[in-house]
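hi! just following up on the protien thing from before. the input was this:
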Amino acid sequence: MSALSPEKESEEEGLPPRQRILVALAVLPAGAMQGMDTFATGVAIPRMMGSFSVTLVEISWVLISYLVASAMFTPFYAWLSRRVGCKNLFIAVAFGFVCFSILVAQSDSLIEVVVFRFFQGACGAGFNPLTIQIILAAFPRKLHGIAFGWLQMGRNSSIVIGPIVGGLLTELFDWRFIYLMNIPLGLLGSFLIWRLLPKDKPQGAKAFDFFGFVTLSIALCATQLLLSQGGKMDWFNSNLIVIYAFVAACFTYVFLFHALTCRQPYLNLRVFKNREFLIGMILVVFTQFMIYGYIGLLPPILQDQLGMPVYEAGFIIAYRGIGSMLASFIAGFLVLRYSPKYLIILGMLGIAFSTWSLAELAPNATAMHIILAVFLQGFGLGFVKTPILSLTFMTLESSMRPDGTSILSTAQRIASGIGISVLIAILVSSTQRARSNLAQNVSEYNERFQHLILPEKWDIESLSGVMALDKLIEKQAEFMGYIIDFQLMTLVTVLMLPLLLLVRIKRVNA
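and the predicted 3d structure came back as:
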């Protein structure tokens, strides 16, 4: 019987110890490729804005289109893995990811980048659910915690390498080179999967729920358009935004009703009957919101507000990966002895302190202040992610794992895309309010200006002086918008803590 079969005997025993390690090493390059691509893209976002002469809201679609496609197609891979097996599907996914990476690198317009990033995300959607299925089958249940710890530590290496390599390639050459670096990683990952992963037998796929796929896709696209365009179009004062909201609400309702009544739905929502899975999924959504919130916010504030070059911003962001790697390694062992909820609480407190530190950021902040906050955020996330995965699948039946990994990965992508859209929408709105408050005080009728000795370039009686002041006000207002986003992230973290009171899993003996 194949070790990747979901039968009880295989699930309990897993693969022989040596083969488990080889399987874990085989899936790492593909996961690292996806992570490096994402975090390198985040660092290159400000440079891509200049290359295409677009705003932060418009360039955010480079990230959002990838995440929307990932959310749409993730459940598809759970269905397809049953039909063709994890090994063959993994190789096909890696090959497709590399091909569309090359097309992104050759793009001449923002529209082309967004389209090819969408298809790149459609391929990349398979990495996470397939990896989780392979690890769950290769390791016995009692070692899942430490296996996920190793896996997260390996993946987090991409958080260290991605921003550094992305920053250096963007600074020395061009942002296009960050997508070409996927070629060697993709080829290496495909070779290792082909050589080291045991061949698994197809399990007999269910009928594909095309109606569920279409309704979910429309609901996700309408939601992303609503969130990303809302601030630009004055929200519900725009008829187009009202249409987006109506379409999103209707198709979400239709999808949920269909998923709960269909015999073989695109997403099997029955896994939510498992209490630990439900709580774990909510916490996973939270971690993705935080992770991708940082990707969308930190590179612009470091480069545009604090004036750091691309490579320096990449090095600073890499400290988050170092913190995550260290925490994932430690958490992988601690989860064998302690209840996951205690480790999650500790990690979330670290995340909250990190975002609070960034909310106290000043325009003249030192690099060390930011490095400590970024490292602590990475450490907190690394301490959270491994116990959450262990908690999520601890009591889920093996027959439900493909559905569970599918829903979990879909929720991650939805949370990532929505997180970026929400935080950027709040950033734009906060910036507009702050600018209005600051600008109304810059007037020749303000007595303070009559008694202040201002530099000649800020002379409010000349056109050049007014333009210089306007540019300064815009920069200060945007900085205040970033601070409000970090305050929101702190609040969200604190509000997640009471959820852990519902977890009633006892201590796990080593």
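The radius of gyration is 24 Å.
Residues 280 and 389 are 7 Å apart (CA to CA).
cheers
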